[in-house]
Fold:
Amino acid sequence: MQAKRQWTLTLTGKTDRDEFVRLVDDHGAVLFGMLRRLCGNASDADDVYQETAIRIWQGFAARPDVRNPRAWLLTIAYRAYADWADKRRTSDELWDTADTRLDGPDQRALKVEEAQQIGLAVERLSDPLRRVVILHYTGGLTLHETAEALGCCEGTVKSRLNAAITKLRSMLP
Structure:
């Protein structure tokens, strides 16, 4: 009962606000990282992140009994991204640099170059393959959660991941 209460709090103003803030604090970095990868740059990701926060807040009182809040939030974020992408296409690079704070200069350069190559290869994937890779690997969603976010079955997610990995292997040295 305690675990269920954790996500189904009494829907009163302060409790809702506190729960909303806690969810954003706990999962906001993952949401933003996923959106940055999907959008291709931080500026557009910030716009979609704000839209995501608005959607979450507007539907917060009517939210379902959430067993996995991260998956629920990432699904809302993905849908906000899909709406944004329908209105606008970007061609910015899609890559993150690796954390190189503890590496020497040579290792740092290698990791940055590798991250750029992978990011550019992911960017060249078709939209269906790129989206499933970002949701599953960057967003950390399970196969089932990725399927729910995309509105398809798990088999489709598996086949797209397999196709994406095969294509990425052929693109990368």
User: Anything to note?
Assistant: Helices lie at 2-7, 13-39, 42-58, 69-87, 105-124, 127-138, 143-150, 154-171. Residues 1-13, 90-95 have pLDDT under 50 and may be disordered. The chain has eight helices and no strands. Residues 13-39 form the longest helix (27 residues).
